[in-house]
Amino acid sequence: MATGSGANQRLLYVGPQAFQNHAAPPVESCGKHCLEEPADDAAKMRLVEEIKNRAKGAFSQKDMPSAELLYGKAITVLASMPGKSEATLFSNRAMVRLNLNKVEGALEDTNKCLELDPKAVKAWHRKAQALLRMNEWDDAIKAAESGKEVDPDNKEFPKLIEKAQKDKEKDAEDKAKLKRDAQDVRVELHNASTARTPPVKKEKKEGDENIDGSMRGYKKTADGKTTSYFHTEISEEAKKLIEQQGFGKPQKLETKAVDEDEAKGGGSKWNQAGTYEEKGMSKWVQDRMKEVLQGIEFKIPTGAGGVIKTLEIEDVKGDASISVSRGKRRHLLDVSCTLVFDGTVGDTSGKGKLLISEITTSADEDPEVKMEVNGETPQAVREVFDAFVKPAGQGLQPLILKELKNLVEEYKTK
């Protein structure tokens, strides 16, 4: 079950018994920790929202088994109501299953999501990813092309198509090489099995009595020593000439300094092989977020006038690093933050916070944003916040998401 509260809530245990066969009171009276399935549709919808929030919390804590179970429970509850279903739940569970390497299950979820919503861009992207892992190159390309038709400006689909084509070509090359190697082995085995005529023993001739048969490959020098057959004797006169020319003595070699080439993938110069190197970028990301997210303003389009603006950033958490491995550069990013804002409408004002999580380098994954309003904020200002801060499609949020997207693109160039 869950313990704690707010953004720091952590799922300690989630299992089948968390949803059934316990003696907890109905969801209307047991608070947010109760997941007993209610009877009426309105209560079921509230339960689904609660489960979805817990699933997001489990995902943010990287507790993928619990997130998979919670999304599955939300799907089951909705299925108990005729005509109720959410395509996003299948897409989200597909993302979790990809993290768990349950590729076949992820593919099933994307197909179900696309049956409900053929324009679900994330589902097309995750379907292509699942098919890539299954080595279904042609089907992966078709899925990516379908997603590109839905969202032509999405840069991730061309990358997936290019990767599928390259992997398909490499797979064909590997299979051809295995076939050639197998053929070479068969030829070698055939040659090894072919009988060879034993060597003919030479007859011993007169005058060969002095040859020592046990010393094959050796010979006697002029001074009576035994040496290798290939050893060349040098006369004293030749030795003097060699000494006069200076051969055989150690000599100092003059070398020029060689400039180091840039390391593969942009790593440090000392790491010329480009084996593995990692650079922490959390401080850079935190500083840039403070620079670009503070002071964003949205003018309220009402007769009374007013403005909503961001004030400061709190609780920047997560990791950011750039790794170089075998010449390939990877930008890792998974951070969250709390953005404080205030708004003024006429003579009244109020404050709130935006809890922003899942800020990553993935172009098709928008950050999760949740609004919290200060308890002292007047109702009139709350209504303005609900209209121009809470929605992702209008008001303050699009301005914030645009700055975050630009920040991520800048980070990718580092």
Quick tags:
2 domains; Serine Threonine Protein Phosphatase 5, Tetratricopeptide repeat; single chain; 414 residues; two-stranded antiparallel ribbon; 10 strands; 12 helices; disordered N terminus; Bactericidal permeability-increasing protein, domain 1; alpha+beta; six-stranded antiparallel beta sheet
Your description of this structure?
- The chain has 414 residues and is an alpha+beta fold.
- It is built from twelve helices and ten strands.
- The protein folds into two domains: 2-166, Serine Threonine Protein Phosphatase 5, Tetratricopeptide repeat (Alpha Horseshoe), CATH 1.25.40; 276-412, Bactericidal permeability-increasing protein, domain 1 (Super Roll), CATH 3.15.10.
- The protein has helices at residues 27-30, 41-60, 64-79, 87-99, 103-116, 121-133, 137-150, 156-193, 236-245, 282-293, 379-388, 396-412, and strands at residues 2-3, 10-11, 218-220, 226-228, 276-280, 297-299, 306-325, 328-345, 348-360, 368-373.
- Strands 5, 6, 7, 8, 9 and 10 form a six-stranded antiparallel beta sheet that branches.
- The two termini are 41 Å apart.
Strand content range = 15-25%
The CATH architecture of the largest domain can be named as: Alpha Horseshoe
CATH class of the largest domain: Mainly Alpha
Using the coordinates shown, work out and report the CATH topology of the largest domain.
Serine Threonine Protein Phosphatase 5, Tetratricopeptide repeat
Q: What structural category characterises the helix and strand content?
A: alpha+beta
- Rg (CA only): 36 Å
* Total count of strands: 10
Largest sheet, described in full?
Answer: 6 strands, antiparallel
Secondary-structure element series: EEHHHHHHHHEEHEHEEEEEHH
Our count of domains comes out at: 2
| Regions with little confidence, pLDDT below 50 for 5+ residues | 1-34
The CATH superfamily of the largest domain bears the name Tetratricopeptide repeat domain
State the shape: elongated
Q: Helix segment count? A: 12
Mean pLDDT: 79
Helix content: 40-55%
N-C termini distance: 41 Å
